[in-house]
């Protein structure tokens, strides 16, 4: 059985790690290089680094910072933010990233997913999907949760699989930063629809929430930020707890 992955997320703004609630009210959470190294040492399975204002501010991901983070890591590392071309992907992979994450660019130019997958392989294409439940319909949002689209989450993830995406990183904007648990019902629904891995994001507050994401939500991996950044949950303790709950994890 494949082990379930625990993935800390480093949201970067102006070269610093930040964390907000429902995508708003950002506060400083530390140096991304130091945090990345700490998580690797503590047993994280992967890291995700998202330059959260890159698309909104129309600039590229901080390649120099990616390089510095990668030099300190011995675990797989995904980078996203402001990626809009195959050339951007090539530069990030050359800087040390193992995978890239695209979000807004995938919605605006779905063919980009296929282009990246065909050139570099599906295994390095993570498509991040930020969605919000509005009157029972899960709507996809762009630009760090600022722009609502007419796209429905379930239609979009099915299309992404066909385009060649290797993984889906689903963030529930309703749950993000609330620490009340992941959107397990919707996680399970989309996990049943597609055969590629689904990463749960948005809502982690205690170890039980990770168990729920893997059991009720059928997620392949669970991503969190503030509970790790502020040491509310230690990764080693979390993994030991998951193992006790019969969740297969790498210890």
Could you please describe the fold and organization of this structure?
The protein has helices spanning 32-42, 63-71, 86-94, 104-108, 111-120, 153-163, 184-193, 207-215, 226-229, 235-244; strands spanning 5-13, 16-21, 24-30, 47-51, 77-80, 99-102, 125-134, 137-142, 147-152, 167-172, 198-201, 221-224. It has 251 residues and is of the alpha/beta class. The longest helix has 11 residues, at 32-42. The protein starts with a strand and ends in a 7-residue tail after the last helix. A hairpin with a 4-residue loop joins β8 (137-142) and β9. The chain is built from ten helices and twelve strands. It is globular and about 40 Å long. The protein has a single domain (5-244), classed as TIM Barrel, CATH 3.20.20. It has an eight-stranded parallel barrel, surrounded by six helices.
How would you concisely characterize the structure shown here?
This protein is of the alpha/beta class. The chain contains ten helices and twelve strands. The chain has one domain: Aldolase class I (TIM Barrel, Alpha-Beta Barrel), CATH 3.20.20.70.
């Amino acid at each position: 059985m494949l082990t379930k992955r625990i993935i800390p997320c480093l949201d970067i703004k102006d070269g610093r790690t930040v964390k907000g609630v429902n995508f708003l009210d950002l506060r400083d959470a530390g140096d991304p290089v130091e945090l990345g190294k700490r998580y690797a040492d503590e047993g994280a399975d992967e890291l995700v680094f998202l330059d959260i204002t890159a698309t909104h501010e129309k600039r590229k991901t901080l390649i120099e910072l990616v390089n510095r983070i990668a030099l300190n890591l011995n675990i797989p590392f995904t980078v996203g933010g402001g990626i809009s071309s195959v050339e951007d992907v090539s530069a990030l992979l050359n800087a040390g990233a193992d995978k890239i994450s695209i979000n807004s660019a995938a919605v605006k130019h779905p063919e980009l997913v296929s282009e990246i997958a065909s050139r570099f392989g599906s295994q390095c294409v993570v498509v991040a999907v930020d969605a919000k439940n509005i009157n029972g319909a899960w709507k996809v949002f762009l630009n760090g949760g600022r722009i609502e689209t007419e796209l429905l989450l379930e239609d979009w993830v099915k299309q992404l699989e066909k385009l060649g995406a290797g993984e889906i990183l689903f963030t529930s904007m309703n749950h993000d930063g609330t620490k009340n648990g992941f959107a397990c019902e919707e996680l399970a629904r989309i996990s049943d629809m597609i055969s590629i891995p689904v990463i749960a994001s948005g809502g982690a507050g205690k170890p039980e929430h990770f168990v729920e994401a893997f059991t009720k939500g059928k997620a392949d991996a669970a991503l969190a930020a503030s509970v790790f950044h502020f040491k509310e949950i230690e990764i080693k303790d979390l993994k030991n707890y998951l193992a006790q709950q019969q969740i297969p994890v790498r210890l």
